[in-house]
Amino acid sequence: MRKKNKTYIRKPLLTLNDLLIIIGCTGFIIGLVFYVNYIITMDELNSSPKAQIIKNYTSIIPLSLQCQISDGKYKAIHDKEFSHYTNYQFEIKGDSICFESDNSNIKIDRFDSGVFVIHHPQINIDSLTEVQRYLVEDFKYSYYQIEECKGDTLKFRLGPNLHVTRTTGVLVRTN
């Protein structure tokens, strides 16, 4: 009968190996706890209905910006490169805006990030072409981003979303 050669691992090496496995597993569990805590915190922050819109704004708005538009009458004056647009006036009361050109109240949402969004009235799109439907959907909202404020003058950027700029200028409070 042949004798089998057995390889023996010394006891101190086995103990060291076990210790390394325990340290690695403990580090993994601690990391997992921190990750789960982070996910729960992000879930709480993103649970509000406005969270998706605000989430999209944070990448282009400086965190130090504290400019907000308040209730009152304003005149919009466009920058030179957008001088082909006519200047207009409007009044903000609570969660609605009323333009001087048409006396209808339109819903707005204000955000802490210096942005307010105008919800334009619904348009019947049944008789429109595919391109026209796309344009109506894209221009359903107007996003005003307040970029700078000095007293009653607010520098703004306006677009159908925060990635497209339709015009820039200043909003001057008239009352």
Q: What portion of residues belong to β-strands?
A: 25-35%
Category from helices, strands and their pairing: alpha+beta
Biggest sheet overview: 8 strands, antiparallel, barrel
Give me the side-by-side strand order of the main sheet. Answer: 1-2-3-4-5-6-7-8
CATH class of the largest domain: Mainly Beta
The coarse silhouette is elongated
CATH architecture of the largest domain: Beta Barrel
Rounded to the nearest angstrom, the distance between the terminal CA atoms is 108 Å
Tell me the number of helical segments per DSSP (H or I, 4 or more residues long).
3
Give the helix level as a range of percent: 25-40%
Q: What is the CA-based Rg, rounded?
A: 29 Å
Topology pattern, helix = H, strand = E: HHEEEEEHEEE
Uncertain segments of ≥5 residues (pLDDT<50)?
57-64
CATH structural fold name of the largest domain: Lipocalin
* Integer average pLDDT: 79
In short:
The protein has 175 residues and is α+β, with helices and mostly antiparallel strands. The chain has helices spanning 11-45, 51-57, 130-138, and strands at 72-78, 88-93, 96-99, 105-111, 115-119, 141-150, 153-159, 167-173.
